[in-house]
Amino acid sequence: MKKKILSMICAICTIFVLLPVITFADTTPNISIEGNDVYCRNASYSFSFEIPEGIKSFSAGYEFEYIGVGNISLEQNGNTYTAIVDTSKATEDEQSFKVYVFMETENGPFRVEKTIALKDHSGGIATCSTKAHCETCGNEYGEYDEDTHNIKHVNAKAPTLFEEGNIEYWTCTGCHKIYSDKDGKNEISDVMIDKLPPEIIKGNGQVVKVGNKKALSFTSSADFNEFKYVIVDEEELGLDDYTVRQGSTIVTLNADYVSTLALGKHTITIGSERGEASAEFEVSEFEPINEDEAEEETKKEDKKTETNTSVIGNAGLWMSLMFTSLDAMGIGLVLNKKRKNK
């Protein structure tokens, strides 16, 4: 009898011992922490989890072996929560860390955790302008590779009056450095060649009769915004003596000023930031010949000469034909007279 009672007591005790475990197991929250199992040092590790119904309260945190634990702020999107851990907190001795979610349930506290192994950045390719991107976290790391360039060749170009030129060179489309060689070994900085010194491109050699009030215009190849001054015969002119306008730089000597100039040749100099451009013009006692009009007169004279030559040539032809006809008539009369005498 005693044995039966003892067995019943043991059975009842076993039931009471197992009952809380069975009840807790049936009500354990089903939570999974989503995130990489391996991540980089000096990066931002992100993980997420979903909170099921029936949870009274919860929080999330991290735990390092040497620096201890800490709480994390959460970002909510519906029932999903996301958290970020700055792994730069880890010391060099840390090989891993944990993230966890702590919850209060009807049956008491409950904790879910995940262990993440730490590693150094790896993978990716560095260039002269970008560092390598880690294949795990995507962050840049390491140093630039100064020997990896995307070289582009640029031909030499001669300067003109209006455009700068350049020497032959090679440039990297990544870091934009400039080199004198195709292998990108000898870096240089200045490849541009200045425009050619300015010149007078229109107006040189003009002639005006002494005392005439005629404006004279001269065009320099220099940019208008580089204009500085005008000099005639080594004397700088005042603003009342000329006008200047764009296209490249057009200086017009006023008619009143031109009428005061003495007989002879004169030199005008247009100064600009890139240098001076000079031209000659002449004040003459004779009315200048208009080249266009002179050319037109020459054409007219040539046309008259051609016409006269044509007329003379045609008259000679007609005279020749007339004499030939007369000779034929004379021969005919002689022959006719001889027949009658017979």
Tell me what the structure shows:
- There is one protein chain.
- A hairpin with a 2-residue loop joins strand 7 (96-105) and strand 8.
- Among the domains are: 28-119, Immunoglobulin-like, CATH 2.60.40.10; 152-196, no CATH class; 200-284, Immunoglobulin-like (Sandwich).
- It is rod-shaped.
- The strands form 7 sheets. A 5-stranded mixed sheet has the order 1-8-7-3-4, with no helix packed on it.
- The longest helix has 51 residues, at 291-341.
- It has helices at 2-26, 255-258, 291-341, and strands at residues 38-40, 44-50, 57-64, 68-71, 75-77, 80-86, 96-105, 108-119, 132-133, 140-141, 151-154, 165-166, 169-172, 178-179, 187-188, 192-193, 200-202, 206-209, 216-220, 227-232, 235-236, 242-246, 249-253, 264-272, 275-284.
- It has 342 residues and is of the alpha+beta class.
CATH-scheme architecture of the domain at 28-119: Sandwich
Number of E-type strands: 25
- Count of helical stretches: 3
| Global Rg | 53 Å
Helix fraction?
Answer: 10-25%
Looking at the structure, the CATH topology of the domain at 28-119 is Immunoglobulin-like
Q: Briefly note the structural class of the backbone.
A: alpha+beta
* Oligomeric state of shown chains: single chain
Mean pLDDT: 82
Q: How would a crystallographer describe the biggest sheet?
A: 5 strands, mixed
Beta-strand residue percentage: 35-45%
Describe the global form: rod-shaped
CATH H level, superfamily name of the domain at 28-119: Immunoglobulins
**Are there runs of 5+ residues with pLDDT below 50, and where?**
13-26, 331-342
Order of helices and strands: HEEEEEEEEEEEEEEEEEEEEEEEHEEH
Q: Give the neighbour order of strands across the main sheet.
A: 1-8-7-3-4
CATH class of the domain at 28-119, named: Mainly Beta
State the distance separating the first and last CA atoms: 204 Å
Biased composition (Basic and acidic residues): 297-306
Biased composition (Acidic residues): 287-296
Keywords: Signal
Signal peptide: 1-25
